[in-house]
Q: What sequence folds into this?
């Protein structure tokens, strides 16, 4: 009969296997440092009960998170992220909605894992056309509840106004696209700067402080992940500036506000009082254009309500989806 391995042999084999695993992991991270971030994002997606898919639409490969666990007749909700954001920003809210709604959460073209092309327009109008094509592809024959945050909130009313056959309800969270009360962020954008730009640890901290009302609400980004994130943001600096120039300084910067005047669907406007990016005065300006909108103003949070106050955001989305 074959001899059973000794405890010492079992422990040695385990050590060898662990060493081999970490060696392979180190090689992967050395070749592609951002793989570490993608691994963490995958963990968050799975924890939120979401799957991942991809589709070729409007000349771009889209990567999106989704959930099909809700009943077949449940509303479909599409969630759009903001400038410098990604689909992962919505995961805390998605985890509260995925039992009752079909969810589709894309990385917009140019951002996250979706395709980016050189010398391509990624402003409000161009992205709105792409989002309309995405909805047709992933929700054929069924209108969706369309939610957008920040830049995504500027895209959403354009889609709803120009393609009412695709959108049954629309929600804007801290949406860009109207002339809100002056703040430092807006002043810097008009001066041609990128207040969200990240070049080092100090500017990463500044970026998070602009987005979140308190340090306690900010995501924890430990070393070496922080260095990987900084390197990626430095690499993306030129792209970010080109998009910000278009959505923040060009003739189309107020296109979302103009589009909102044509929105007839049930609507939601949600802001945080302490938003340092899109001042809460923007909610009143959008409300003038969308008088049918449910208005929700939260206190004690900043620009990232979807991460700081996911329970209240999910509850507001559910109220919107139930509106007839």
A:
């Amino acid at each position: 009969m074959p001899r059973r391995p000794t405890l010492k042999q079992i422990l040695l084999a385990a050590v060898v296997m662990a060493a081999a695993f970490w060696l392979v992991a180190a090689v992967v991270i050395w070749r592609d440092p951002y793989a570490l971030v993608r691994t963490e994002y995958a963990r968050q997606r799975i924890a939120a009960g979401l799957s991942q898919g991809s589709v070729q639409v409007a000349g771009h490969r889209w990567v999106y998170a989704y959930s099909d666990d809700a009943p077949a007749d449940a509303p479909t909700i599409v969630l759009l992220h903001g400038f410098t954001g990604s689909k992962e920003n919505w995961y805390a809210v998605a985890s509260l909605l995925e039992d009752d709604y079909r969810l589709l959460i894309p990385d917009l073209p140019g951002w996250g894992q979706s395709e980016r092309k050189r010398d391509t327009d990624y402003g409000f109008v161009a992205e709105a056309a792409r989002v309309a094509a995405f909805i047709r592809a992933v929700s054929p024959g069924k209108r969706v509840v369309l939610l957008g945050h920040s830049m995504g909130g500027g895209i959403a009313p354009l889609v709803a106004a120009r393609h009412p056959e695709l959108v049954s309800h629309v929600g804007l969270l801290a949406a860009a696209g109207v002339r809100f009360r002056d703040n430092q962020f807006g002043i810097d954008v008009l001066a041609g700067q990128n207040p969200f730009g990240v070049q080092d640890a100090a500017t990463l901290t500044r970026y998070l402080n602009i987005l979140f009302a308190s340090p306690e609400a900010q995501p924890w980004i430990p070393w070496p992940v922080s260095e990987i994130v900084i390197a990626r943001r430095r690499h993306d600096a030129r792209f970010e500036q080109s998009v910000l120039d278009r959505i923040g300084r060009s003739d189309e910067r107020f296109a979302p506000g103009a589009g909102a005047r044509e929105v007839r669907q049930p609507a939601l406007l949600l802001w945080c009082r302490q938003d340092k990016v899109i001042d809460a005065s923007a909610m009143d300006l959008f409300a003038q254009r969308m008088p049918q909108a449910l208005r929700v103003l939260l206190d004690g949070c900043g620009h990232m309500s979807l991460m700081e106050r996911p329970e209240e955001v999910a509850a507001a989305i559910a109220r919107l989806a139930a509106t007839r």
